[in-house]
Design goal:
1239 residues; six-stranded parallel β-sheet
Length: 1239
């Protein structure tokens, strides 16, 4: 069997051994296959083999790591099968299982576990979940703000944004700066670097902000000048044409009059254009020369209105001529660019110095608060023995490098463990991670293999820094001749090289050509961070007879509903017509599951789902929502909040209206009305109602209590009472039971899991509910109130660490997903919709702007003013952030388009309004040679796609809309079908409403039939109160009375009942009774109990924090008592025996406290009963049943009253299971009383 056929570039990437290699791998270029083959060849190199566990391969996700390990394993297995006697290959397959192929976070976590002793972290640290992190952040921030407000300079900073009314903006600024810095190595030093330019007196002219603003001003002035020059040329042509027409008049006098009129009409416009072009030329010259003060002086008269601003504002004569629209558009756009220049150069150097003096103390105080927050937050995490993900990387870097950047001795030892360091998705690396890679690589860095695609860096919001990749892309020389370099001689360091993998094996030829055309018009080093030329342009790697296609459809409006409806119609047409898509070397008709709709955000998913569903098209929306926001989890959250505090009307109403309790809106209205009537009646009877004074509004829970206590015996009142009883039982249980037990009881008693299972995507919903229960188990150790706080924190953080994990596409369904979620996937047919969504430029409006290279900037407020203004630093950073945001959006568009294999379909709104024509604007810029400036102003994907397709050879319909059929188009081999869709006509409405029809007399027979039907009564109504399935625990809790537990801090032993009960139960569940019996006989019982406790901890049967709570004296008393003697005498001991069996409904009702008459009414019915027996003792001829109880402050009578029904049901179920043996003894062992009670 022949192996894969590698392209020359792929072969070079696989075989190169001459030093560090950066592989710029385009979409669909097979980079994973190359990475796999390189690893395999390193392992199997005949001259310099590398053990598999000496390859460090870092991936972006755990799924990618698992896939890569599996691929390498499969490749080694294949070679082993070809060489069955090769022991080395078998050994490498075993070593592969422990090879560090993982994410950077997983690698750092493993490093910390191995070398924690070298750092100031506890050995038993644990990763913190997002909810806990959010709680600790909030607590640390509150302390930080309280301390910071002692500094008048920090108060001055806070007043800039909160004006003394709120400290939220100040707190947000601290968190924003902290989060930004955590992606940088040595971030504490970075704060000093950010502050340095603010400390330099009269040094504005040497700051980077000065240069950034002037460079942008020069670019804007150049674009404006080019627009004005093009407008001048058009104006001259129109002038010449009208003069020629004037010369055709019949008489000399008429000619002179007509020519004078034309000259007068054009004089103002031509003069304005000439003066404006000259002004912009001078502005460009001064900005390019770095002349800030002369430029500011030049602009000041225009800002103050003393000079006429560029453009046609205030011009009296109206333009005519064929090019009037283009002239007007270009002049208006040039005026906007001039206005932007005045915003960039908005202060004198003296004013910049005054701003520096005002900002310095505020920034210094703010950075001090950030440091204080860092210390407090770190202390709180250390106290809880927690580390968050960013801590893994920072602590790992501390292990590997000193603060001065020198590798530690440990680092030198660790790097010897790795023969190669390979990084996938390198474009999404941040500076901190890159510093770790440099430490792990050889001193010369020549064992680095970095793979990525700068055009697919789309995680800037996660602090990914594409400039790291770009710096190497610009600095490293291409691989000589594009061929692999040999291994350098021993002791000689290899060099750095760059290699491009540009062959795309995913997309059909026309899809590749269409993508290339679009990004050749759009992507530049300033917009996308790289030029879309050689090495970045896609090359079709799989040409063939199937060409594929690209379509661009322009829709009449920009609403999601219009976009969704058109896409749904097109999907239906594709499937109905059997449009072909590739299937190996042949084709087949397209199916729904081949289609994917990509959107920039989840907000409009519903509109697309509804449009597809309306046409009967199956659809799957790959939403990946926060678990706390999932619709099927919110009812559980509401119920838990009510269990904690029922006096919360909104959450109580949500719980009652949810599927667990089944109340309706009318029920709540009736509850309120009935409660209000009772309240009024009670006041009147007591004579307490004061004249003219209205009664206070009662809470919803108060209304429930009033109906429960005073309501008549009606079905509705009974429904409210049942709800109250169930809620009371859950609230009682929450005081002592662990969170996981409480959630399990909610699931069992309400049947919620079963209800989720019958819904659409039921298995997924049930799994989400189980994940939520696991989250509660992790965070609810300190009681229900702490659990609710953790839930709120997780919701605010946007993550629980257990987010729903969708599975991408679903068989038989059209998939809807965000572009970010689609990265790494591919689909035969891709629709890119919602292209009019505006870019999120909120980063440019933060209170403080930060940049790794350009420092920090903030806004200020005049002493006597209300509105804030941008300092020069803030204006410069805002411009940089806006450019970087648009660059990221350009890369996001590239990711979207490159997901398509066979058909790429774009939907773009026309964007035509009464006051604006985006095609005319684009044509004005493009014809003037200012297309780059146009693209840098874009606010959406649609703006870019209109501009690119306007110059496509098939873009004639768009050029007609622009009114410029002479706009030259760009030659290309791509064939993009461009259509302009007409708006759907509104349905006609009749001018007059039809007359009302005559009433039809009722049919007596039908009336009688309906009356008979409504009079029907359910024959088994008595069974309505009997559940089909019930847990024994719920029966006990329903019958049990509320008892108040003494708080832990007042308890003699400092333990709550829940903590003590959990520890005792956990110990007895796993205890080695034989060892304890032997120790009892030997007189060493105390030591044996402690040894057994440690054994359970060592074997991870019990958590250490639970084992620490164990009351040894109670265990000793148990072993010395009657109950343990019975255990030792038994033939067999069954622990935690779970059962589910059908029992008579009458027995269940009796256990619940029902009367004999009520039980007799259902004696022939069966109920499923579920439970877990603590101990079943098996003897030769009988069974005995024992149950541990840890309840406090109960007498023997209390135990028998509370738990005898439970044991009776246990006995019935166990009798049925072990027939013919019978339970002859039932006992309750009270660990509080220390004795066995016969039940």
């Amino acid at each position: 069997m022949s192996g894969p056929k590698w392209t020359p570039a792929q072969q070079a990437a696989i075989a190169d051994r001459g030093g560090a290699l950066l592989v710029s791998a385009a979409a669909g270029s097979g980079k994973t296959a190359v990475l796999t083959e390189r690893a395999v060849q390193l392992i199997t190199d005949p001259e310099h083999p590398v053990n598999a566990d000496r390859l460090l391969i870092v991936t972006f996700t755990n799924a990618a790591a698992a896939e890569l390990r599996a691929r390498i394993g499969q490749a080694l297995l294949h070679r082993s099968q070809l060489q069955p006697g090769n022991a080395m290959l078998r050994r490498q397959r075993m070593l592969l299982q422990r090879a560090p192929i993982c994410t950077i976070d997983a690698f750092c976590l493993n490093l910390l576990h191995k070398h924690f002793q070298a750092l100031d972290i506890p050995p038993d640290f644990a990763p913190a979940d997002p909810g806990t992190v959010q709680l600790l952040r909030g607590a640390a921030l509150a302390e930080t703000l309280e301390n910071a407000y002692r500094d008048p300079d920090f108060c001055a900073f806070a007043d800039l944004y909160g004006k003394g009314r709120t400290d939220k903006p100040a707190g947000d600024a601290i968190l924003q700066i902290y989060d930004f810095l955590r992606a940088l190595p040595d971030y504490d030093r970075k704060l000093d670097e950010f502050l340095a330019p603010w400390q330099q007196e009269n040094g504005f002219d040497v700051t980077c902000w000065h240069d950034l603003l002037l460079a942008q001003a020069a670019r804007d002035a150049k674009a404006a000048r080019e627009l004005l020059c093009a407008a001048q040329q058009d104006c001259r042509e129109d002038y010449a044409q009208e003069m020629a027409e004037a010369g055709e008049k019949k008489t000399p006098a008429a000619i002179r009059k007509a020519e004078a009129a034309v000259a007068e009409k054009y004089a103002d416009a031509q003069g304005r254009l000439e003066r404006s072009a000259a002004l912009l030329g001078e502005v460009e010259r001064l900005a390019a020369a770095g002349q800030w003060t002369p430029l500011y002086d030049k602009l000041t008269p225009y800002v103050l209105g003393m000079e006429e601003i560029p453009g046609f504002k205030g011009m009296k004569k109206r333009l005519t001529g064929d090019h009037k629209a283009a002239v007007r558009t270009r002049a208006d756009e040039a005026a906007k660019l001039f206005e932007h220049i005045t915003e960039l150069v908005s202060c004198s150097e003296e004013e910049a110095e005054a701003d520096r003096r005002a900002a310095l103390p505020r920034l210094r105080a703010l950075f001090a608060a950030v440091r204080d927050f860092d210390a407090r937050f770190s202390a709180k995490k250390k106290e809880r023995k927690l580390l968050e993900f960013s801590d893994f990387e920072h602590q790992a870097l501390r292990l590997l490098r000193t603060p001065d950047g020198v590798c530690t001795p440990l680092c030198q030892s660790i790097r010897q463990s790795y023969a190669a360091v390979m990084v996938d998705e390198y474009q999404d690396t941040n500076a901190l991670q890159d510093a770790i890679y440099r430490c792990l690589a050889s001193p010369a860095g020549d064992d680095l293999f970095l793979v990525g695609d700068l055009k697919q860096s789309i995680y800037r919001f996660r602090q990914a820094d594409p400039s790291i990749f770009r710096a190497k892309l610009n600095a490293w020389a291409p691989l000589p001749s594009g061929t692999a370099r040999p291994r350098p001689e021993e002791g000689t360091a290899g060099g750095n090289a760059l290699l491009a993998l540009d062959a795309n094996f995913r997309s059909a030829p026309q899809v590749v050509a269409g993508i290339n055309f679009i990004f050749e018009q759009l992507m530049t080093p300033q917009l996308g961070d790289t030029a879309y030329g050689d090495g970045q342009r896609l090359v079709c790697g799989a040409p063939g007879d199937y060409a594929g296609s690209v379509e661009a459809h322009f829709l009449p409006d920009d609403t999601a509903e219009t976009d969704a409806a058109w896409i749904a119609q097109r999907v239906e047409e594709l499937v109905k017509n059997g449009e072909p898509v590739r299937d190996g070397s042949s084709t087949r008709p397209v199916q729904y599951e081949d289609c994917c709709i990509l959107l920039a955000a989840r907000g409009d998913f519903l509109a697309y789902e509804e449009a597809l569903t309306a046409r009967g098209i199956p659809v799957y929306a790959d939403a990946r929502e926060n678990l706390m926001e999932a619709a099927h989890i919110r009812p559980l959250i509401s119920l838990l909040k009510v269990i904690d505090n029922p006096a919360q009307d909104i959450y109580l109403a949500a719980a009652m209206l949810g599927p667990m309790f089944g109340f309706t809106d009318d029920d709540l209205v009736r509850l309120r009305a009935q409660s209000a009537a009772m309240q009024k009646k009670a006041q009147e009877e007591q004579g307490a109602k004061e004249t003219g004074k209205r009664a206070s509004r009662m809470s919803l829970y108060g209304a429930v209590l009033q109906v429960v206590q005073n309501g008549d015996e009606t079905p509705f009142t009974q429904k409210v009472k049942d709800f109250y009883d169930r809620l009371t039982a859950l609230r009682r249980m929450a005081r002592s039971a662990p969170a996981e037990q409480l959630l399990e009881e909610i699931f069992v008693s309400t049947g919620y899991l079963a209800a989720l299972g019958v819904l659409e995507n039921g298995a997924h919903r049930r799994e989400d509910a189980r994940r939520f229960a696991a989250f509660c188990a992790q965070t609810g150790a300190n009681g229900i109130s702490a659990l609710v706080r953790a839930i709120d924190a997780a919701a605010q953080a946007g993550s629980t660490g257990q987010d729903t994990v969708p599975g991408g596409a679903r068989p038989g369904c059209v998939t809807i997903m965000t572009i970010h979620r689609s990265k790494g996937l591919q689909f035969p047919v891709v629709f890119v919709g919602d292209t009019a969504r505006h870019f999120n430029l909120s980063d440019t409006y933060q209170p403080v702007l930060l940049h790794r290279e350009y420092g920090a900037g903030l806004r200020l407020r005049p002493e006597q003013g209300e509105s804030m203004y941008k300092t020069a630093a803030y204006a410069a950073l805002a411009s940089v952030h806006a450019q970087e945001t648009r660059s990221e959006q350009m890369r996001l568009l590239y990711v979207a388009l490159t997901r398509a294999q066979d058909k790429l379909i774009l939907t773009v709104p026309l964007g035509m309004t009464k006051t604006g024509n985006p095609f005319a604007k684009a044509a004005a810029f493009l014809a003037a040679g200012a297309g780059e400036t146009l693209n840098q102003q874009a606010g959406s994907f649609a703006d870019w796609l209109r501009a690119a397709l306007l110059v496509h050879p098939f873009g004639g319909p768009l050029r007609r809309l622009a009114g410029d059929l002479e706009l030259p188009f760009v030659f290309t081999e791509s064939e993009i079908m461009v259509t302009v869709q007409e708006a759907q006509p509104e349905p006609e409405t009749p001018e007059q409403e039809p007359e009302a029809a005559e009433p039809v007399p009722a049919d007596p027979a039908l009336v009688a039939q309906l009356q008979e039907g409504f009079a029907w009564r359910y024959p088994a109504a008595k069974l309505a109160a009997v559940p089909a399935k019930v847990s024994v625990t719920s029966i006990v809790h329903k019958a049990e009375q509320t008892t108040l537990e003494r708080p832990a801090f007042l308890s003699k032993d400092g333990l709550t009942a829940a903590e003590m009960g959990t520890a005792l139960h956990a110990f007895l569940e796993h205890a080695d009774f034989a060892s304890l019996a032997a120790a009892k006989a030997a007189g060493t019982l105390e030591e044996a109990i402690l040894t057994e406790r440690q054994r359970q901890v060592d074997r991870q049967l019990v958590a250490p924090e639970i084992a620490e709570k164990l009351d040894v004296s109670r265990i000793r008393r148990f072993v010395e008592g009657e109950a343990f003697a019975k255990i030792c005498a038994a033939e067999k001991v069954l622990r935690e025996l779970a059962f589910i069996t059908a029992l008579p409904a009458s027995a269940v009702l009796t256990a619940q406290g029902a009367s004999a008459q009520e039980a007799a009414a259902v004696q022939d019915e069966q109920v499923l009963v579920q439970g877990i027996a603590d101990l079943v003792l098996v003897f030769p001829d009988h069974l005995e049943l024992l149950d541990y109880k840890t309840d406090r402050r109960k007498t023997e009578a209390d135990f028998l009253s509370a738990y005898r029904p439970q044991l009776n049901l246990y006995a019935l179920a166990i009798d049925k299971r072990f027939a013919p043996k019978k339970v002859t003894y039932k006992g309750i062992y009270s660990l509080e009383l220390g004795r066995l009670i016969e039940a």
